[in-house]
Write a structure and sequence with these properties.
The protein is mostly helical and about 100 residues long. The chain is built from four helices and no strands.
């Protein structure tokens, strides 16, 4: 089977890859790169194609990649001192207050 052959992937895996690629394209990633990342994610999740033929195919994998979202965020803020975070929060609150005066709905 040549590299890049998608014949061993199930319909569901292909839909999944399309959906993932779409999300990347919405965020401005090029079509080709989005496609590459999408299939990489399906492989990470499922360990390759799941069609019959070949050992150990077809069992559920728990979709690990789908559980990663949001877990790695907030690192930068966590490493800052509480005083500096509080300062930023005060600034943000003041900005929101100031902006609210201009944008009354």
């Amino acid at each position: 089977m040549p590299r890049g052959d998608k014949s061993k992937y199930t319909d569901k895996q292909e839909r999944k890859a399309d959906h993932i690629a779409e999300g990347y394209e919405k965020r401005g990633v090029s079509d080709k790169e989005a496609e590459r990342r999408a299939w990489a994610t399906v492989n990470k999740d499922d360990g390759g194609g799941k069609k019959e033929g070949g050992s150990g195919r077809g069992e559920h994998t728990g979709n690990p990649a789908a559980h990663k979202g949001g877990r790695i965020g907030g690192e930068a803020s966590a490493s800052r001192s509480s005083a500096s975070r509080s300062e930023s929060a005060k600034k943000a609150a003041a900005n929101r207050k100031r902006n609210a005066e201009h944008h009354t709905h």
